Give the backbone structure.
Amino acid sequence: MLSNYKFMRHLSNGCGHKFIDTSDLCTSEIQDILWTSLDLKARVKNHSFGKPLEGSRITMLCSCQSRSDNLLVQSALQTLGADVLFMLSSRWEQYKFKKDVGKFCSLYSDLVVAGGRNHNSLCQLTEGASVPVVNIASHKFAPLHALGVLMTLQEHFGRLNGLTLGWVGPMGKKLNTFIYLLPKVGIHLKYNSSPTPNFPASPLVLPAGKNFCKTFNTRIEACPDPLSTIAGVDVIGTSKHKKETQKLELHMFEGANKNWIFFHILPRWEGEVSEDVFNHQNSLVWTLHENIKYTLMAVVLRLLKTYRPTLVKPNFN
């Protein structure tokens, strides 16, 4: 069983409690979050889950987040039994003193779930808060979405170590978070984020990711086009974009490993993937978005309570 978690101590370091990105999470901490997520899902499905956060007050601060993310967050918090106090509009990021927003929310909340356009805004809010702050997504990182992907891969393959994930889509928060997370759980990453082969993309956090690869004996490879990205991978993912040269078509998947799976972090536009890929039997889009809910539940619950899963710990190798 877990003791009073390294994960909890990690979130207490620095300026208050925080789950803003995943850069400092170690392998065992990532695995413990996924273990908790899988346990929560099993208990909810079996109708053996109570309301562990009943009476807890959680404030939602959302700025640029999609309606689907807002719905996901509210569903997760309600399943835990928490009271969602209120939601502020995009104006909170326009305030000059964002630390004051964190202090104000702390007066009335046990935890703040926040999303914003600017990652620095979230960091400043966290500095002022005396309660835990969880990042839904910012322009720089999307930790809950990436953890949802890992949970989905563990469910499907029964392991994480040794898989290869191909990302065909924009640079930014999703790719940055994958670069931080995947090497630590033994997953190799191939990516194509530039629609023009002669102008390769270099993600902001790539140097840190390369260092993680040296430590964990994994690799990150930039690819010139979608076909070379898909070749030999187990998992292909994307998110919304309008680059026709990066559109995923079913015939491209012939070069992927036999039991490939596809995921898309919603919402979607018309240009990034064909209907026969999005609705393919190997597409786990809807499973992923259900699982993101459980990763949020796991993070929030473990920030506020000592939680010990009843599910046997999975083998991630």
User: Anything to note?
Assistant: DSSP finds eleven helices and ten strands in the chain.
